């Protein structure tokens, strides 16, 4: 009987965990914000000189923070939507180039993308590379040295000479499961 109670307890705990990550519904407010973010960056809008509006960008950014602290980002899709929104905020168009007004959003976007990858979202690992590289670029570090590429489902270091210790010394998060290219 004790074994049955322990198994029942573990099953309930397991279902509780699954309900917050695997079985939860996507956050519809976050989905709508993500769709608005994508529309603001549509090829047609950008071609016509219609760039994202700062106040809209900040509203989406604040929504991500609110949903995050209230525990309402739980599915793989939620993590991707939040990461993409943060990847795009805190940027200004200066001389036809996007310039970061602050880099913390890009770092948080990396961690959100990492969680999406852990939850097996098909875009998670690609988004990890994109957010990591945006963070590096806006830190003023060399993409050729510290950047990563996404290829064949793997994150690949731009330089085999940069170790995890080198990354952390520069204040960069270590990257999980990076394939270091080797000279043939």
DSSP helix fraction: 55-70%
Beta-strand share of residues: 5-15%
Q: Count the beta strands.
A: 5
Query: Cα distance, first to last residue?
Result: 61 Å
The biggest sheet amounts to: 3 strands, mixed
What's the arrangement of strands in the largest beta sheet? Answer: 3-4-5
Mean pLDDT: 81
Number of domains: 1
Class from helix and strand fractions: mainly alpha
Outline the low-pLDDT stretches.
4-21
Helix segment count? 9
Radius of gyration based on Cα positions? 19 Å
**In one word, what is the shape?**
globular
Spell the H/E element sequence.
HHHHHEEHHHEEHE
Task: Describe the secondary-structure layout.
Layout: H1 2-21, H2 28-40, H3 43-47, H4 54-69, H5 76-88, E1 91-94, E2 97-100, H6 104-118, H7 124-139, H8 143-146, E3 148-151, E4 154-157, H9 164-169, E5 178-180
Parallel strand pairs: 4-5
Antiparallel strand pairs: 1-2, 3-4
Signal peptide: 1-24
Keywords: Signal
Protein name: Lytic transglycosylase domain-containing protein
In short:
It comes from Pseudidiomarina donghaiensis. This is Lytic transglycosylase domain-containing protein. The protein has 184 residues and is mainly alpha-helical.
Structure description:
It is a single chain. This protein is mainly alpha-helical. It has one domain (2-180). The chain is built from nine helices and five strands. The protein has helices spanning 2-21, 28-40, 43-47, 54-69, 76-88, 104-118, 124-139, 143-146, 164-169, and strands spanning 91-94, 97-100, 148-151, 154-157, 178-180. The strands form two sheets. It has a three-stranded mixed beta sheet. Strands 1-2 form a two-stranded antiparallel ribbon. β4, α9 and β5 form a beta-alpha-beta unit. α4 runs antiparallel to α5 and α5 packs parallel to α7. 30% of the residues are buried. It comes from Pseudidiomarina donghaiensis.
